[in-house]
């Protein structure tokens, strides 16, 4: 006849439960450390916050602060759209495809060069109805990115801020990527118009949509 030693079984079970609890704690600590490490590696221009101001030029200047070092080291160039005397253009490409904020064309590889222009609007533009748009363009030649910072201003109201970044993918040569952030600091909703350009000849695509931007929210 077998005899069960209950105290030893209970002790073993308690040891197993304690082991699993400590393993969960260790995993959580490792994940937290990994998150902090990745956050520290994230470029400042991606984690910078929008300020609350009713001065559009101050708003635009604030969006340019994360790029101060690159501008000083000539790794990036600032382009003011209202300055018609400048010959500088924003451009991003990967040798197979490219585009610019100032040109409503996509450029593709032809005969060894990016020389073939197609009148296909590829970039999304944002607009807030009834607001004046103050913007600045920035060409990051070190990382191959182009940025557009916009501040939409209405009378006696805070600025609605937006920032968009465009780059041509290095691994997938036919892919252009555009990211954008929009911040509404006010106590009421605003409607942001997302315009894909003139696509009347492209019947399968939707060229215009509206997004309701909640008060004091970021998209």
Labels describing this entry:
globular, 219 residues, six-stranded antiparallel sheet, glycoprotein, disordered N terminus, alpha+beta, transmembrane helix
3D structure, described in words:
It comes from Schistosoma japonicum (Blood fluke). One of its GO terms (cellular component) is membrane. Pfam families: DUF2152 (PF10222). With 219 residues, the chain is of the alpha+beta class. The chain has a domain of 140 residues. The strands form three sheets. A six-stranded antiparallel β-sheet has the order 1-7-8-9-10-13. It is globular, with a radius of gyration of 26 Å. The termini are far apart. The N terminus is likely disordered.
In short, what is this structure?
This protein is an alpha+beta fold and 219 residues long. It has helices at 6-41, 44-47, 56-64, 68-72, and strands spanning 76-79, 92-93, 97-100, 103-110, 113-118, 125-128, 132-140, 145-153, 160-168, 176-184, 190-195, 208-213, 217-218.
